[in-house]
Amino acid sequence: MSWIAERRQRSRFEAVVLPHLDSAYSLARWLTRNEADAADVVQEACLRAFRYFDSYREGDAKSWLLRIVRRTSYTWLERNRPAELVALDAADEADGAAAVDRMPGAAEGEALLMNRSDLRRLDRLIEALPMPLREAIVLRELHELGYREIAEITGVPIGTVMSRLHRARSLLRRNWDGKDG
Q1: pTM check: above 0.70
Q2: What is the mean pLDDT of residues 93-110?
Q3: Confidence class of residue 87 from pLDDT cuts 50, 70 and 90?
Q4: Statement to judge: residues 29 and 103 lie in one domain
Q5: Least crowded by CB within 10 Å, which of 8, 48, 57, 69?
Q6: What is the average pLDDT score of the chain?
Q7: Helix axes 3-17, 35-51, angle to 10 degrees
Q8: Cβ neighbours of residue 24 under 8 Å, at least 6 residues apart?
């Protein structure tokens, strides 16, 4: 490949991928639960995306990149933290609600401090969800993707996406309501 063609390819790659790096990092951070690990995952995912950029067909670049980030995250977790990749059914058997750390209620005081406390608490509750539920809720609520896009990224049927979202929301609501109990 000539240097002109390589430069065009790199420019096209940057135009497709760079606008979605924040979303890629956010998803990786939620899946790995660690900022440094997420940065490593996104870097590896971008290298993979660039290596196989010829296979990218014009379309939803964000979904395409997030699918690569998701796969890379799972590969990274399998290699570095295999114990975290618990099957969803096993988590259900142990009642996923019990796996969620309950944070103490927000201290009485200023509304701003309460809001910050609530956001931190919600982050902890989301982080404690089983991986499939966590990724579904993050893709839907934080990245504002539709069911079809989530199904495409995760490689599961839309009905499964809907079920995972329902279960994630139910667990979050149950554990949120249980904060004073």
Answers
A1: no
A2: 41
A3: low
A4: no
A5: 57
A6: 82
A7: 140
A8: 42, 45, 46, 65, 66, 69
Q: Which domain holds residue 21?
A: 1-85
Instruction: Mark whether 59 and 127 lie in a shared domain.
Output: no
**Greater model confidence, 116 or 106:** 116
- Cβ-proximal residues to 47 (8 Å cutoff; 6+ apart), any chain: none
User: What is the number of other CB atoms lying within 10 angstroms of the CB of residue 53?
Assistant: 15
The reported pLDDT for the residue numbered 101 is 40
Report the CATH number that the domain containing residue 148 is assigned in CATH: 1.10.10.10
Its sign, for the CA torsion 61, 63, 68, 72, is: positive
- My answer on whether 79 and 96 are in the same domain is no
Euclidean distance between CA atoms 142 and 151, whole angstroms = 16
Tokens 């135009």 belong to 15
**Beta-carbon count within 10 A of 102 CB:** 17
Domain shared by 112 and 151, yes or no = yes
Judge whether 70 and 85 are in contact, CB under 8 Å: no
Check: CB of residue 22 under 8 Å from CB of residue 126. Answer: no
Q: Are residues 171 and 101 in the same domain?
A: yes
Instruction: Tally the domains of the chain.
Output: 2
